[in-house]
């Protein structure tokens, strides 16, 4: 038989448990809502950047992440990709990468988006990314890269690796080395950018406007140096 004091303690404990459960439920719902909102904004930005075409000449398709989209810039047209020569089209999605689960926004990996992006029939495909693969297993990055190369068979391709963004700099060497090895296996030119000292926004992940200019100009120069003629066509 419960004494009045024991009953009071049990009631108090029950209230605490209920309050904790409510707080956890609120936290989970809040995080889910925030994630949904971020993904929705990423999709809006991706569509907007797709509509922006810069330059003239041969058609260049950039498949990439938030750096290609221009996340953090007042004008998405100022992303680094606009520094490339040619008629540049961007198929970017913030948070995406080579691996299938780099993003929490569904099927938006480079492989998942490649087939649709290729509809504009590019003369050259530049794949930029790797920073969002920082916490992904090596096997997942490997699989995503190989699936993407299958998608891009028959096209001229260049892969641009990740720069050393301060917030993820510890993970960059592993991803950079893996991507360079895979690119060499497929005979695809690989542009290293991990040596660059770039200006970043306060999040220590995304570039400032000057950072985009410097990154874009360096990538353009290094592509030209690696492929003085025309990049080889990826075999089927």
TrEMBL record:
It comes from the Bacteria. Pfam families: Lipase_GDSL_2. GO terms for molecular function: hydrolase activity. Keywords: Hydrolase. The keyword Hydrolase applies. The keyword Hydrolase applies. Residues 62-213 form the SGNH hydrolase-type esterase domain. This is SGNH/GDSL hydrolase family protein. It comes from Nocardioides baculatus.
